[in-house]
Write a structure and sequence with these properties.
CATH topology of the largest domain: TIM Barrel
Number of domains: 2
Radius of gyration: 23 Å
Number of helices: 19
Largest sheet: 8 strands, parallel, barrel
Number of strands: 21
CATH architecture of the largest domain: Alpha-Beta Barrel
Strand content: 15-25%
Structural class: alpha/beta
Length: about 475
Amino acid sequence: MHFLPGHQAVADLTYGDVFLVPSRSEVSSRFDVDLTSTDGTGTTIPVVVANMTAVAGRRMAETVARRGGLAVLPQDTPSDVVAEVVGKVKRSHPVVETAVTVAPHDTVGEAMALIGKRSHGAAVVVEDGRPVGVVSAADCADVDRYTQVVEVMAHQPTLLALAVVEQGGASGLRAAYDELHRARRRFAPVVDAAGRLVGVLTQVGALRSSIYVPALDDRGRLRVAAAIGINGDVKRKTAELLEAQVDVLVVDTAHGHQRKMLEALAAVRALDPQVPVVAGNVVTAAGVRDLVDAGADVVKVGVGPGAMCTTRMMTAVGRPQFSAVLECATEARRLGRHVWADGGVRYPRDVALALAAGASQVMIGSWFAGTHESPGELHTDSSGRLYKESFGMASARAVAARTRGGSAFDRARKALYEEGISSSRMYLDPKRPGVEDLLDEVTAGVRSAATYVGAADLDEFYERAVVGLQSAAGFDEGRPLPDGW
């Protein structure tokens, strides 16, 4: 990456301060752009779901990995729960989506509580492992919540054979899509040769699977990462995560450039993990050097740019994210390592700019909190809008969860100091209520940016990107006017 002539920065920059300049391009289609990462994490799109309790859970990890990304399970998740989640993710089919299931005699209320966990908008009614019906949110509307599902479900649903879905890659997906289209079904259960439920496939899911390549380990299973804190028995926790077969270890603390982080990395490296080790957060070249010297393969960059983070307003500590990523990525590349840009992303353009600055991946948290796949319960406000609650990982709420094993006095004392928001409503976008909808938006933006730059992959994108500086008015000029003039 280099700056447009005459546009050298005299101050640190945020994503809103800069823009990409179009160049001559031989890349004619966004589908010709390869978004596979080169940092050893095995992702096929440069998107990592941040290790926030309100964001990264089993449904999120499975769904994002199916589309080529990676989710990081939070550090305050008990090891036995991590092992259970990792096991379920790795047992998930790389193409067929996991179904929400209910029994015929479950109530409509029980079905409605589950349907919102996925973007399908429906649950499969299962008896003896076989689908006998489908029930949607529309079927349950204006129905008494104690009504049994069997009374409102659609009987004899259209079924897709797993053999059809799996045959010949894209041709199988095309055949499945055509079958759904002919049957005028948006959604159908997928069954094996014995007629037992494997999962579900939607029309848009078939299209996505023809575009995205899942992030798979060397045994063909979906990938998932997990975080470790720098306090407590780091070596034991690392051993437990490795035993659970996580694919990436993330050693995580808000201030990564400190002695305890270096000691934690030494403890992790003592176990000789055969998976990438990520560590952070830092915002300087010196921080990158120290963490790489201590054993980090990837360094996480960002202090204070997150939507739930109050660090900069509380402490004045941090750094504008574009400049932080640019400096840290330059140093990491010199050392043969990589950085993840963590935080500050509000639009797809910000992801493209982070990659142009040299990041191998971009971490997204709060943006994904308001989706069906995030762990929180779905709520409805007084106007009927759907939302989920989100909170920062340095908030009093998160600190209380992380220190639940301590004494009441010590926990209360630590809760006096917080650098994050403890409760925020993250509304679901009616047009993009699922994380896959947001991934479509992000990857479409990045792919198009690459075609403007003339890059066929992420390495070329970094090499060819030309960045200019802009005023606040320049940024505002680029905003659409959806409500008219």
